[in-house]
Design goal:
The protein is of the alpha+beta class and about 300 residues long. It folds into two domains: about 90 residues, Antifreeze-like/N-acetylneuraminic acid synthase C-terminal domain (Type Iii Antifreeze Protein Isoform Hplc 12, Alpha-Beta Complex); about 170 residues, no CATH class. About 20% of the residues lie in helices and about 25% in strands. It is built from eight helices and twelve strands.
Length: about 300
Amino acid sequence: MRAKTILTVLFLISLAVASIVILRALPIQVDANANTVKEEILVATVPLQAGTFLRAEDLTWSLIPRAAELGEIVRPSEAARRAKPEIDEETKASLYGAALRPAHTIAPGEPIRRSGIVKPSDRDFLQVVLAPGARAIAIPVITGEASTGLLFPGDRVDVILTQNFKADNAPITRRSVSETVVENLRVLTIETLDPKAGGRAANGSSSRTVTLEVTPEQAETINVATELGKLSLTLRSVNGPDAVTASLSGSNQRMGVKPTWAGDVSPALGGAVPEKAITAHPLVEVIHGSRKSELVKTE
């Protein structure tokens, strides 16, 4: 009886060993979906056309059921985000102001690939984003601390020139004037100068260099304006009839914009300093032989 039991146990052990050997020899089939590495990549939230400048609202992180492909922007790991919370936004912000290359469109939900964009730091950036026949001009603009984040690449702006006249014979109401010299220009790049390198004005404002898309005529106008006074930019609306998509008409006509003088802004200036009255004196006729001339009598 005992011998039979021992033989039965040995048989079962042999069967188990044989089963293990056979299973190890069989090909292993793995569920691909179960072992796929899932990552988050940067995708478009709206349709993006060639030449579009990327903004925060155009991009979002999306989970994909696969490993990221070469050139896709991968979200930093959860551990990296815990160690440095701002790294998530910094990764996205590195693409703000970049433009889609020609013949490259992206549908909502499609990934943003590095090969499909060009950044302001890239050598061919201006060649890619400039419209045919356009020029690029960089101008220094002084902006207050509250408005340093007002402009972004792709915005439309007007250029305003402000002048101060120090002549003693000019009425106080006419010693300062502001006027729009060029309208509806597209912003290409914005560079904030390093304060350590002299990029801060005496009043504490930040000095920025803004590159604009212009026609040759508009470039000449802006060059003259920089010699006359201080330049500032005003942001145009993207909605309504004011949002003209093409400014390269070759004309510098300013749609009836008139200069604004100091007296227009502050009527009180008219009474601040009494202005000298200009008296019209009678004309005096002077005869030199047969020649006659008229002069204004002065005192």
